[in-house]
Amino acid sequence: MKPLQIVILGGTGFVGRHLVPRLQRDGHSITVLSRNRERRRDLGTLPRVRVVNADVHDHAALARRLDGADAAINLVGILNEHGSDGSGFRKVHVELTQSLIAACVESKVPRLLQMSSLRAGEGESFYLKSRGEAEARVQGSPLAWTIFRPSVIFGDGDGLFFRFADLLRLAPVLPLARAHAKFAPVYVGDVAEAFARALAHPATVGRVYELYGPRTIELGDLVRWTARMIDRRRWVLPLPDALGALQARVGECLPGKPISRDNFRSLKLDSVGSADGLAALGIVATPMDFVVPLLLARRTRAASTRRG
Fold first, then answer.
1. What is the DSSP letter of 277?
2. pTM: predicted TM-score of the whole model, two decimal places
3. Which domain of life is it from (predicted)?
4. How far is CA 140 from CA 97, 103, 143, 144, 197, in A?
């Protein structure tokens, strides 16, 4: 395919740090919009990649940055909000998506790739409801859209295995809410590849792709497996829902919100799919067993070197 001019919102985040180099290898020119370009100056050293300061919630500024682009990619998302009434999720997921659609129309950008989530629009959580609302806005737009619904995403520095590994290194006992919630973790490199292939193939327009890995695992088993990978003997204590709800209420008051009431509501639904989007795009899903142990071992070696 011919090289494209692509604007990425949320490109300095976890998925963006893998997607930008992948698209750059295809010869595309990429503009990454960030509130603080200094956070990921390394991305800007790649050929044909610019990281620019921009407030994506400023509609006029967003439309200016989209001028001349062939495609926009929206990776912006949050797992927790300031407050607990859902307004933070609506601002980031719904209102920003609506503004982006309007800016694309104004700037004559024909193509939009939208990050969403498995089970979007289902259940009681503000997170999933807002993801579903955002999808509806995209699907009702005049743009040539593609939507991606990943399960939890793993890779170097992820917020799943790496976060639990840090907790397990400190705590001999880990109380765990919703320990029986199921996930099908998907590799971040596979997610990036899905976006790249969607840009290259017009048949992906108007399609929703569920992205998930080959292994379905309960949260409690995932944490126990992580403990084994970092060579820690730990007791994972599944909590009944009443205590899990209390843990979530307390957790959202702690720095970084390790768990919130909305996370707890999201975990009522298993993050597993029914239509293999990776296979539909010709991608063989990467098992977590092939990647995570090596990444955690590398993190352990690096920590040991720093201490030494």
1. H
2. 0.95
3. Bacteria
4. 12, 15, 9, 11, 23
The alpha carbon of residue 37 and the mean position of all alpha carbons in its chain are separated, in whole angstroms, by 19
> 270 pLDDT band (50/70/90 cuts)?
very high
Of 44, 54, 55, 56, nearest to 20 by C-alpha is 44
Structural domain contains residue 102? yes
Number of domain units in the chain: 1
What average pLDDT score do residues 142-167 get? 96
The per-residue DSSP string of 192-260 comes to HHHHHHHHH-GGGTTEEEEE--S--EEHHHHHHHHHHHTT---EEEEPPHHHHHHHHHHHTTSTT-SS-
| Contact (CB, 8 A) for 156 and 14 | no
Residue 78 lies in a domain: yes
β partners of residue 113 = 73, 146
Place of tokens 């607990």: 84
145 within a domain of the structure (yes/no): yes
| Tokens standing for residue 98 | 């609506």
